[in-house]
């Protein structure tokens, strides 16, 4: 292998390592969303359930998702703790919502306010403490 090949291989390894570190650091982070990031809101007609008067947790899942089942258990627990609604959506069956909300991977979790605006978003398996705190703040509960 010549010098050019070695440099190209080193560049690929460095880029892949940087991506892996970035992904590890940001995976599951609960991010507050600006109103401009999701200009439209989700209505009961979009979801097939009534929006909760305090908050609604929405999970986008897929059949091959390794982290969807643990995320489902976590969201069920948080929804029960804060007495809010929870909905699991199969991303493949609801491509309209998947595309509209730019869901690029599963699980993706959205926290909706009573009006259906996305207040928080998580890509990947959510961090329990961060998500519990975000939902608690939204519903006005002490965590």
Chain-wise SSE layout:
Elements: H1 3-26, E1 31-32, H2 44-47, E2 56-61, H3 68-82, E3 85-90, H4 95-100, E4 108-112, E5 118-123, H5 128-139
Parallel strand pairs: 2-3
Antiparallel strand pairs: 1-5, 2-4, 4-5
Structure characterization notes:
By secondary structure, the chain is an alpha+beta fold. It has a single domain, classed as Glutaredoxin. It is 43% helix and 17% strand. The chain has 5 helices and 5 strands; from the N terminus they run H-E-H-E-H-E-H-E-E-H. It has helices at residues 3-26, 44-47, 68-82, 95-100, 128-139; strands at 31-32, 56-61, 85-90, 108-112, 118-123. The protein has a 5-stranded mixed beta sheet with strand order 1-5-4-2-3, covered by helices on one side. A hairpin with a 5-residue loop joins strand 4 and strand 5 (118-123).
Approximate shape: elongated
Number of domains: 1
The percent range for strand residues is 15-25%
**Main β-sheet, in a few words?**
5 strands, mixed
- The strand line-up of the biggest sheet is 1-5-4-2-3
In CATH terms, the superfamily is: Glutaredoxin
Nearest-angstrom radius of gyration? 18 Å
Unreliable spans are none
Q: At the first level of CATH, what is the class?
A: Alpha Beta
CATH hierarchy: architecture: 3-Layer(aba) Sandwich
N-to-C series of helices and strands: HEHEHEHEEH
Please work out how many helical segments DSSP would assign. 5
Q: Ends: how far apart?
A: 58 Å
Arithmetic mean of pLDDT: 86
Number of strands: 5
CATH topology: Glutaredoxin
The structure class reads: alpha+beta
Helix content: 40-55%
Protein name: Thioredoxin domain-containing protein
Domain Thioredoxin: 53-135
Organism: Catenulispora subtropica
InterPro entries: Thioredoxin-like_sf, Thioredoxin_domain
């Amino acid at each position: 292998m010549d010098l050019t090949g070695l440099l190209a291989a080193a560049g690929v390894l460095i880029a892949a390592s940087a991506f892996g570190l970035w992904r590890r650091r940001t995976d599951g982070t609960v991010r507050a969303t600006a109103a401009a990031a999701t200009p439209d809101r989700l209505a009961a007609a979009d979801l097939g359930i009534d929006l909760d008067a305090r908050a609604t947790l929405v999970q986008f899942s897929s059949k091959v998702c390794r982290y969807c089942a643990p995320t489902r258990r976590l969201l069920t627990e948080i929804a029960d703790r804060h007495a809010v609604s929870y909905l699991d959506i199969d991303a493949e069956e609801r491509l309209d919502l998947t595309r509209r909300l730019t869901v690029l991977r599963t699980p993706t979790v959205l926290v909706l306010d009573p009006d259906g605006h996305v207040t928080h978003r998580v890509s990947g398996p959510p961090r329990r403490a961060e998500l519990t705190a975000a939902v608690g703040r939204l519903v006005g509960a002490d965590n």
